[in-house]
Structure formats: C-alpha cells, structure tokens
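Much of what follows relies on a compact textual record of a protein's fold. With that in mind, consider the following protein and its fold in token form.
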Amino acid sequence: MNSSLSVGRQLVANGCITDNELNNALQHQQKWQSNSAKEHLVGRTLVEMGYITQSALLECLYQQFKLEREAYVVDSQAQPIIRLEQVVKILDGRRVLDAVDLSIPANRVTAIIGMSGGGKSVILKHMVGLMKPDQGTVWVGDQPLGKLSGRELTRIRNRFSLLFQGGALFDSLNVYDNVAFPLREKTKWTEIEIRSRVMQCLEEVNLVGMERKYPDELSGGMMKRAALARAMVTDPEIVLLDEPTAGLDPIIENAIHYLICDTFMRARYTMVLISHAVPEIFNWCHHVIVLHRGKVLFSGPSREVSASQDPVIQQFIRGEIDGPIQVI
C-alpha cells in the first residue's frame, strides 16, 4: 500500500475499520477547522466513537509500519535529507568522530546505535548545527551548514525539532506552556491559534487533562509524551530524538515506541533517534546506523543489521561480555 495514503485509508486498507466507519468519523469531527487536522487525528475520533480501541489502533498502525520496514531498501539515487562527509570532532583530546560518513533517508525512521560515549549525541548536535566539525561537512539537503550565515542557519534549524535526553521540560512551566513555548518563541501566532495547536498535540499524545500539571507532577512516561508533543508542535520536517526511552520500565518503553510509530505514520516526519534498546529498536525503524569508536560500522535496513558478520555488531546486539568490545 502507498505510504502516502492518509491514516484513515491505511486503516481501511488493512481491514482495521470499514469505509463507512471512516466516513462517519470524518463527518463527526468538529473540533479542528482544517481538513488536514481532521485527517491527522482521525484515529483518535475512531477510538472515541467506539469503532476501534486505542491499543488496536496503535497495533494496526504498527503492522502497516512493519510492512514498510520490511520492504525498505536504500535508494542510492535519492538525495539524503542529512549527510555527514568525513566529519571529524575532537573533544578533550579524544577523536569522538573519526572521518564519519553517513546519510539519513528522508521520511523514514533512522536509529543510531552504539556504545555509550561513542559519539551518537555528538552526531545529533552536528546535524542541527549546535556543534561544528573540526573537519568535514554537514549537509542538510543541499545546504552545507558550515557555510551558512546566522540567518540562513536559523532558517535550517527551523526545519528541525529536538527531543532532548530526559525530555528537558522547563520545571517552572506547566505542560501547556512547555508545549506552547516554541510557538511563542518562533511564530507570531495569536494565543487562540497557539491554544488550538497545543491542544491538538496534547490529544495526539493522550495528555489532554494534564495541561496544567508541572513536570514534577508527571510520571516518566508522561514527561516523555509531553516532550514529544513539544517536539511536534511546530510541525517540523525533521525530528531528532535523543534516547526517548531512557530510564523507563519495559512497558512504558514499549508504549513510547508505539507512540513514535503512531506519530510517524500520521505525520511522516523524518525521524532520527538514538537508542540503547537493542535489538528491540530494530522493530521500530527503517534504517540503522551502527557507530563504534567514532566510525560507522554499518548503515542500512534494520532487517539486515542482525545479519551482519561484524563481530563488534554481533557482540553489541547480543550484549555479550566476551568479544572485541572490552568492557571489563
């Protein structure tokens, strides 16, 4: 099935709902003025109307994502949305990135995995221009970040949203104001427009009713969902997620993965995430990049990474103590 079809049509094509149920849901929606917003949240409306349960909705979207993931191949002719060419970064005398070459495919979910301290977060910071390489070039589309003026770099950064490790919510702001913050900083929207968009994003992550709570009143999973809502609120082209499931128990970790999948299937962002949830993360991404000692050991479809014969990759996937990676 064509991945560009709307969420509702995907659900119909997969036999999760009927055409009649979809049409009823679209007609029922009154809360969002634009047709795009209605399509964006049609799954929520289907749940509200009792046509499908929330868990069944997420599972249906995951099954469609699984089909896409299994069919994904690297298109060598397509221009990557982000590209690093021979990037070197030295921090505290250590060569954290060692002539890194990598490409991020557009409108796909890419996971970057590797040992702690191996340069994964440093790569994310280079992608958005928060760090500059000591050597090499970082490209976003056809734009080399190192040659852009301040205004041009700001324009490029506006295509991104970054979900920081731990969420990085402002402790002094409630959930609503945390999510609204990027719109107040980057746009000239009215408070009425901001409220409409913020409440839409909170509904997408199932946090309606929690908007007046402060971060210290939220569970770890709620904090991650609030941070994801803030990352989505500007409707970015590219979403970078730094350890979105760190510190969560297995059930909440799985729920966050389903939420990320749900977000991707509806919005079709380019998503790049760092994760230590190996090998589970291979189920939730199209493309995998394995980083070790500042170099890329593997870059390709997620279904192929476990078949790699590289002993470092195999040791990392299996979590074994014995092997070329010395941890003790």
